[in-house]
Amino acid sequence: MDVRGGGPGTKETDALDPRNLVQKVEAVVLTGGSAYGLDAASGVMAWLEERGRGVRVGPGPTHVVPVVPAACVFDLGRGGDFRARPDAALGRAAVEAADASGPGAPVPQGCVGAGTGAVVGPLKGGVGSASTVLDSGVTVAALVVANAVGSAVDPGTGVLYGELFEGRRVSYPAAQVHEAARRRLAESAARNAPPPLNTTLAVVATDAGLSKAQAQKLAGTAHDGIARAVRPVHLLSDGDTVFALATGDRALDAARPLALNEILAAGADMVTRAIVRAVRAARSVDAPGGTWPSYQELYGDPAGAPGTGTGPAPGTGR
Q1: Residue 211 and residue 205: Cα distance in Å, rounded?
Q2: CA 186 to CA 184: how far, in whole Å?
Q3: Closest by alpha carbon to 121, among 95, 89, 146?
Q4: Tens of pLDDT along 110-128?
Q5: What is the pTM of this model?
Q6: Cα–Cα distances in angstroms (integers) from residue 213 to residues 117, 216, 258, in the given order
C-alpha cells in the first residue's frame, strides 16, 4: 500500500508493510462513508471467519483472523442524509456478491459501490476498471474509485486529462459544447457546499509473482496514474491510497530484476485508464445533498467510450 493524500482513512494497512509478518490478505475493502464506512470491513471479516479463511492463530480450523485492509472515500451527506453510510451488513452483502460473481465476471462501473457518492471536482465520479496483458503474458489490472478534490477535465478544451495519456487519438469537444459545459458546472458548483474532503482509491493487481517489497513499489508508482488523470492531486483534503496485489501465478525471471519495470509502468497506465472510465461511466446526480453533472451529459459519449453498464473484467486484455 502507498498513501500520497494528506487525509487518508484506512484500516489494517500496517500488516502490508514489507517488514511485517503477514504475506497474504483475504480481501481488500474500498468503501464510502469516510471513517464510519470502514465498519464494512467487519462484515467481510465475519464472512471469511465462517469459512476458516485467515491467519491461523489457534488449534482449530476456525481459529483464524482474516486480514482485510480497507480504505474509505469521503462522501458523507452527498445524498442528503449525513448518516447514510456503509456498515458491517453492507460489507457482508458486498463480499457475498463478489463470491457469487465468479472469476472473469464483468466489473460494474460508474455510480456503484464505493463510487455511489463519488465526485471529481464539480463532476460526478465513480468506479472504473481497466486491464492489459503484457508481451510477457503477465496481466496487470486496476480498479479505481475516482473521488478527487481536483478536476479530471482540462479547463481549456474539455478533454479528460487521462485521455491525453492513453496513446490514442483524442476527440476535442466543439467550442460551444465546452462553453455550455463550463456554465453548467459553474452553476452546479455555486449551489453545492464546498467538498471538505474527497480521496481517490485504487487497487492494482497482477498475476506476476511479486515480493511484498515489489508490490509496495507497484503501489507507489501507480500513483503516477492518478496524477495524469486528476489535477491538482494528493492534496491535504485528499486521502489518495493505492493497494497492490499479486497472485503469484507467473514467476518473474530472477535473472532480470528490471522485468518489474514493465509491470510498474502498466500499473500506472491502468490507473489512468480506469479513472477515465469511471468518469465516463458516471451518470448525473441531483440529490438533496447537491447536484453533480456527469461528463457524458455535458460532453456526450463518443464511439468506443465505455458505457453505463459493465466494463471489462481484469484479465480480458482490454
Answers
A1: 13
A2: 5
A3: 146
A4: 999 999 999 999 999 999 9
A5: 0.91
A6: 33, 5, 14
